Amino acid sequence: MHRIAISICAALLGIAFTAPAVAAYPDRPIKLVVPYTPGGSTDQFGRAMAEGMARELKQPVVVENRPGANTMVGTQGVARAQPDGYTVLMGSSASMVLNPMLYKKTGYDPKDFKVILIGIEVPLVVVTNPQVPASSIKDFAAYAKAAGGKLNYSSVGLGNPLQLATEMLKSELGIEMTHVPYNGSAPALASLLANDTQLMVDVVSTSLPHIKAGKLKALAVTGRSRLEVLPNVPTVAESGYPNFHAATWFGLAVPAQTPPEAVAKLQAAASHVLTETPFRNTFNALGLIVQQPRGQAEIDRYVQADRENWGKVIRTNNISLD
């Protein structure tokens, strides 16, 4: 019996030693869902992140474009995906912050996600028509107050970050203006170029050609620092409104229940990409501000502050979208 027991133990130990080990994450390709159409700067950011992360993780990171419903189609899909670290979302202020506050039904909850990277900020520029007698934000505030609410501002639609940023600016300056929404940036800028509207908060890359051609005046940028592409244009904060900051952002998010070890590896790989010189040069040249890597606690604080910032504007103006 003793010999039999020893034989059984030896057999069991042999099984234990020969049992296959659990594969270390990642052991297969990772999917990065980009909820935007191919070709734009947001898609370029997603593809550059995927390429850099693939080098770090030693696995392909495959981009899947899933546009629709102001990012909600792609975001819903990731919210329902298996939380195993193999499906990642290119998240943004739109999907993670604004949509849940603006829309009655999004098909997901912000708590379904963990934001693991703030990759780039997209600062905005405050532009006006050259006929407007203002060369600074304070000049424009004085001009708008003297006009008694008769000035107009253009945007690309109700609830869009550009419109919300303008409402935020109005509150900061203490002025009244009429909102004139347009279906896209081209007609919104056309109205400003014709002086039918007198102000617009726009994405820098869209307005930059008009600014350089002298067809629009840049009064200020809305981020925390000046831009390399507009070095002589001050921030709103340094123009006398120190608490003002408005920018959209793009980063990465994963389903909330993704294992911590997978989150750590994804975050480390993505953070390394942010430090690479070619990556930084490419996106800074587009007027997109590549962020320094942040720890998880700092990311959480950043997103929460963003929610509070935009939420105040949305509630004050009673903005709701179907």
From TrEMBL:
<comment type="similarity">
    <text>Belongs to the UPF0065 (bug) family.</text>
</comment>
<feature type="signal peptide">
    <location>
        <begin position="1"/>
        <end position="23"/>
    </location>
</feature>
<dbReference type="InterPro" id="IPR005064">
    <property type="entry name" value="BUG"/>
</dbReference>
<dbReference type="Pfam" id="PF03401">
    <property type="entry name" value="TctC"/>
</dbReference>
<dbReference type="InterPro" id="IPR042100">
    <property type="entry name" value="Bug_dom1"/>
</dbReference>
<protein>
    <submittedName>
        <fullName>ABC transporter substrate-binding protein</fullName>
    </submittedName>
</protein>
<keyword id="KW-0732">Signal</keyword>
